[in-house]
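Hey, I was hoping to borrow your eyes for a little while. For a while now I've been wondering how a particular protein folds. The fold is given in discrete form, as structure tokens running alongside the sequence. Could you read through the record and tell me how the tokens relate to the sequence? Take your time with it, there's no hurry, and the full record follows here:
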Amino acid sequence: MRSQFLIIAGIIFLFTLSSGCIASDGNTQLNLTFFDVGQGDACLVQIHNKTMLVDAGPYEAGPGIIDWLKTRNITSLDVVVATHPHSDHIGGMPTVLKQEKTGIFIDAGDSHTTPTYEVLLKTIEKFKIPYRVVHEGDQIDLDPAVTISVLNPGFTYSGDLNDNSIVLEINSGDRKFLLMGDAGIPVEDKLLKEGRDLKADLLKVGHHGSRHSSGRRFIEAVSPEIAIISLEAGNEYGFPQKDPVKYLTDAGSQIYRTDQEGTITVTADQKNLIVKSEKTSSPSTDCNCSQMQGVCKSQESRSNSCCLSCGV
């Protein structure tokens, strides 16, 4: 009788193992790639054969992201997240959505009636991409080996689009990664007041290293081993500004910048965090000027390199 029980138990264990409910080595590998998109944000999360794109940089960054995906035989995206509807985060997204089969599109639902956002919504509608709005407390399904939690925005929007950014906490085993979008100090203070355990292995620094994000108390609480700042060399805003850099340095963080390192990939498992960078050419300014006519009418696009190149 006991031998029969052991045989049955063994069969159940093997079935559970093969179905993926138990990790075979407890050491799942996660890749986060922070693209060099100039002045903007774009990050690809990869685990097993699943992919999640968080933002896609300005308009001119779209073709470069597509080229990067193609060279790695990535022909579909399970999840695409727009953290907030500023053009330096969603400008390249229509190009990506047109060429990559997309499982679901996610944003914060904060209305923003600029031509850039309208083009994105029309693309989602045209290609019949499922659409979901998320708020704090929600989770995003990507792979059973990771938990992706939405920490912001709340159900009441602030008057600042940056502070309505989707903030993501990605947990993989004992590893934690925080992607802050352009969320500023008010969001950081809210997270601190909620008493969350914010300690993380990696922080995608909020708002490109602006002094309006990455407050001292928040950085001390997160104390990331690795900090990623996505920005353009010689940008007109003076990013990264000295206060966030000082707070990160004081916290012992290793800072990586896309304006210096280019595209940055962090490979993480339970034992190691490995950072690799690749210098790529700057986002192309070979722009489709006829398509830019509507986009460039908005005030937010006045510094868009395609708008400047096309003279519109």
Summary: The first strand starts at residue 30 and ends at 34. The domain at 28-286 is CATH 3.60.15.10 (Metallo-beta-lactamase; Chain A). Confidence is low (pLDDT under 50) at residues 1-25, 299-303, 308-312. Residues 54 and 81 are 5 Å apart (CA to CA).
